[in-house]
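Narrative summary of target 7.
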Amino acid sequence: MTDSVLVTGAGGFAGGYLLDALVASGHRSVVAWARRPAAHDGADTTAGVRWQSVDLLDVQAVRRAIDEIRPGRVFHVAGSPHVAASWKDTATPLAGNVLASHHLFDALRRAGCHSRVVVTGSATVYAASTEPLAEEIGRAHV
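Modeled conformation, tokenized:
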């Protein structure tokens, strides 16, 4: 493994803010994945950020990229964020949220990377709220 930090979905809203925060906190080896990073592809638009065009639904591309990067940490921000649209087309978000994550985790396993992985989510999985939602530890009983 390397000191590289991988951010999937880096071209999206949350991914862009995460890249800024990682660079601001001193990370100098950040790899930003986006399906279509357009002008960013291969370029360092921010010091320490290397953009790659990787489609998480392309299992071979994901494996090759993970073999090359061997990240120490992964922020998995990629996914289909539009809940309302998912009820009209269930296959696309299923692939973008579940299958894409499987490809990433499988590639990390195959490469022997013992990376720390953060998988993001949003409050929309709970309920719409104008107030911050709190999660209390220890409430659930197994």
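DSSP finds four helices and five strands in the chain.
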